[in-house]
Design brief:
By secondary structure, the chain is mainly alpha-helical. It is built from four helices and three strands; from the N terminus they run E-H-E-H-E-H-H. It starts with a strand and ends with a helix.
Amino acid sequence: MIITNNDWVYNKHKDTYSVIYIVGSYRDVLVKTRDKIHEGYELLTHPLSSSLKPNETPYKSVIIADNKSELNYDSVYIIENSIVTYDRFNKNKLINLTEKIENDFKLIDLTVLESALNI
């Protein structure tokens, strides 16, 4: 299952994978991921993956397991710490992004996701 706020990821993979599209911020993606992990889904990609810091991109996609099981404490630890880390960064860098810059960030997020999917 993919959780994303990137419409390029959603539109490209919605017919192949289970995709939850978040109309919101990077942090909203992390919070939705945390909620799913608390339901018993396991985290499959790190929420802070890629060389971009949370204050350097508005887009994020995370992959979690399709099936629920028992609560995975490693996943809980990683997502909770990812939210804390995200909150530490100053988000003022993301003000006044042009459409071209936003598209570049969408492409980076899509590329990182697809490398995790090995496609």
